Amino acid sequence: MLKTMNLSQPMSKADYKAAAAKLRVELLQLQFQLSRRDKPVIIVIAGDDRSGRHETINTLLEWLDPRFIRVNAYGPVETQDDAKPFFWRYWKDLPEAGNVGVYLREWTSTSVVQFLNDEIDDAHLARRLSTIRHFEKTLSDDGALLIKVWLHLSKSAHQERVQKVRNTPFYDPKDELALKNFDKATQTIETVLEETDAPHAPWHVVNGDDEMQRAIVVGESIAKQIRYWLDREKPAAAAALPPTDSHTNVLDQIDLSLGIKKEVYETELDAKRQQLREVMTQAHEKGVAVVCAFEGADAAGKGGAIRRVVTALDAGLYRIVPVAKPTDVEYAHHYLWRFWKHIPANGLMTIFDRSWYGRVLVERVEGFAATHEWQRAYQEIKDFERQLTDHGVVLIKFWLHIDQDEQLKRFKSREQTAHKKHKITDEDYRNREKWPEYREAIHDMITQTDTSYAPWALIPAQDKKYARLEVLNTIITKTQAALDAL
Amino acid sequence: MLKTMNLSQPMSKADYKAAAAKLRVELLQLQFQLSRRDKPVIIVIAGDDRSGRHETINTLLEWLDPRFIRVNAYGPVETQDDAKPFFWRYWKDLPEAGNVGVYLREWTSTSVVQFLNDEIDDAHLARRLSTIRHFEKTLSDDGALLIKVWLHLSKSAHQERVQKVRNTPFYDPKDELALKNFDKATQTIETVLEETDAPHAPWHVVNGDDEMQRAIVVGESIAKQIRYWLDREKPAAAAALPPTDSHTNVLDQIDLSLGIKKEVYETELDAKRQQLREVMTQAHEKGVAVVCAFEGADAAGKGGAIRRVVTALDAGLYRIVPVAKPTDVEYAHHYLWRFWKHIPANGLMTIFDRSWYGRVLVERVEGFAATHEWQRAYQEIKDFERQLTDHGVVLIKFWLHIDQDEQLKRFKSREQTAHKKHKITDEDYRNREKWPEYREAIHDMITQTDTSYAPWALIPAQDKKYARLEVLNTIITKTQAALDAL
């Protein structure tokens, strides 16, 4: 790809001025149009430090209105918040709908640098490239525009620059080193670009030798892509999942008769909570993060189970994230954004009370997500979870299961209890009517996302006490296993 | 205050169980009621490490629904993000309307610990206590409920605890030290509590000797205050400001005839941008943060001035925050919250395109804030700005001034320019009708908040070029002065 790049003659100053004036008007108009779209634009300006990334971004900010563009620039990974998965930093900075986010020293350049510095090996790089493909596809599938520019300096221009400063105070020995490694680096970049070039996220390789020409080529390329994106149709729907065979719903395999006696429960509960406290203290000391996602029908006992977990812990070590209707800012982002934001640093715990699985449960059943959106979500969720577990996060997904009769009993009992009455609304009764649709969605969710790295914990919750002990048990066992494997 | 604390007999287990059961129902009901309020509840559980703060919080979380309570626990200041003003960490974690935020190792306890460890001296402590008073008053004035509990262990209980573990593995030499310094510490705490006790944020000193009694006393006190707060009337309006004498509007002192020739401008602009780049690089290296707030009428040239500033800088070193209508999450917090969130770390720069002054401009003129709210805001803003400058932030507030004719001329010219047409709407014309009200609000704003630590830079902006150079000049001069003073 590097060989096919534009190598035409440098530009004259007059040509530059004329082209820049025209481009500026066009870019400002496009920026206004895109500000009304319900999706964001993501611009990656990649390449090595000598290829003029900074200057190109500053020129773009002079042409566009910089107030509605956020430049996200990252330091070397070791000086970043390394206690979270690699992609966490890029996810949290994603622009919201109608905005432009420019990424500098982003995922691809950083991966190249890490590889060239021997910080990651071949296998790690291959895995990283696959994650990059998934990440970019996820954003593009959701409707975001992804523009990726790779600025490349020719070897001769590089030599010339080093030559020019060799006996001046601007001389930097790193430039010499880069020149020495030019061929090896170019080979790596070539491979990385090929592997991460995709129809929805193509690379635009631009020659960085001439400053003015470079700016115009990048600007025109960005304008063209935004214009195309603004005019384009919405993506076509993906193929539908095969219909579920309702005779073999995975929920039927859960033994709802399991229970426990009150006396046994009380002794066990104290013991388990003590164990949990110890294992979580160890996890904190060893820097192991834990993420629990609680799913289950209304009144399945999520809140009660969570309370037994957290009150055994030091308040500084965990955070509960109750997941409800998205806020307006959340709604203006990719649906996974609000979950990425809450991923704990190493040694801490986040408990999601309902989770990203809402995409394939309530959003599917109530029609808040289009068919192709929730069908795509299974793979997106698996990619997300894989990134967490690859980073060393202990990820535990609970489905607390009760049957429809038990739910009704609990609704009625809540209505009789003064301090629980407000938990029951007409909507809860309405949701019961969709029980069959939810059963199908739950079956699909479990079968589609039950992976070796993030299996579902299916908890019979007809007996609350039994379910609470099982939840405690599961967290203890999984976290202990992760600690033992260190 | 410590002497007046409850020292009654320890509780029996049966009494505890009965009291806890009753309290739990009441607290859950209150939690449901407060979840529908448009303001948050802030609970401080303070005291030293041996007084049972953790246990008390865990008991509260067992009684309440922990999913709608966030416990904000802070480490020692030196391990926190020390690159920002002290109160930044507490502001960013403020609960939103309808939620409960519990603070552990918060502003008051931390100040006591810092003083006892000789990290801050008498004068610093006095200043800190004054900031605490302002901070708590600001929250309470805005309608939040502030509950402050100080858990205090008696000397005898402390001695007993140390005695009990002295020859066991639980022994911690720090406890011995705390015991040795008990009297000095008690004296400091006494002073700090007295100085930070206020009608809107009173301290509730609770004896921490007996675990069960302590929990019940704290729980009942919290329930009582929430109940009182839920029933209470809104706060009465503050006294009105004296009317402005329109003959002496401060805006009339700005010389709008100031301008600059095009040739001079272009040379100067390049020179100033180069200077700015150098001084900001130094500021970055020396860890000096810069905050610029841009205010001015529509079309006063804020965007153009900001573009000349930022495109001279490295994209990683600044962030532009355009301030528009608050999002729903921002609206559910104190109005200063969204600005605190964006305060840069040492060595970085934040540019606010419109700012916290919206409270006393658009919110006042359009009636979005009640009279007592915007009148109170002058002092709140001064407290906020004082905290920034005390921390070493260079704070620059620009008023870009044009007259009404110039504005009209610019509106008309924008309508003629393809890529600026969208900037002009009917609302812009409607806003012009309120010019006299805005003039009065601007006069009050400038005279009320022009302080020695954060003076206003009043920029004649009738000539755009002149204004841009003045803006660059002001940032260079102020930042250089801060660097020279290091």
Helices of chain A, by number, come to 19
Which H/E pattern describes the elements of chain A? HEHEHEHHEHHHEHHEHEHHEHHEHHHEH
- Main sheet makeup of chain A: 5 strands, parallel
Return the structural class of chain A: alpha/beta
Write down the Rg of chain A: 27 Å
Give the beta-strand count of chain A.
Answer: 10
Overall average residue pLDDT of chain A: 90
Written overview of the protein:
Two copies of one chain form a homodimer. Chain A is an alpha/beta fold. Chain A has 19 helices and ten strands. The first copy, chain A, has helices spanning about 15-35, 55-65, 90, 105-115, 120-140, 155-165, 175-180, 180-195, 210-230, 260-285, 300-310, 330, 335-340, 360-365, 370-390, 405-415, 425-430, 435-450, 465-485; strands at about 40-45, 70-75, 100-105, 145-150, 205, 290-295, 320, 350-355, 395-400, 455-460. Chain A has a five-stranded parallel beta sheet with strand order 2-3-1-4-5, sandwiched between helices. A five-stranded parallel beta sheet of chain A has the order 7-8-6-9-10, sandwiched between helices. The longest helix of chain A has 25 residues, at about 260-285. The first copy, chain A, is elongated, with a radius of gyration of 27 Å. In chain A, about 40% of the residues are buried. The mean pLDDT of chain A is about 90.
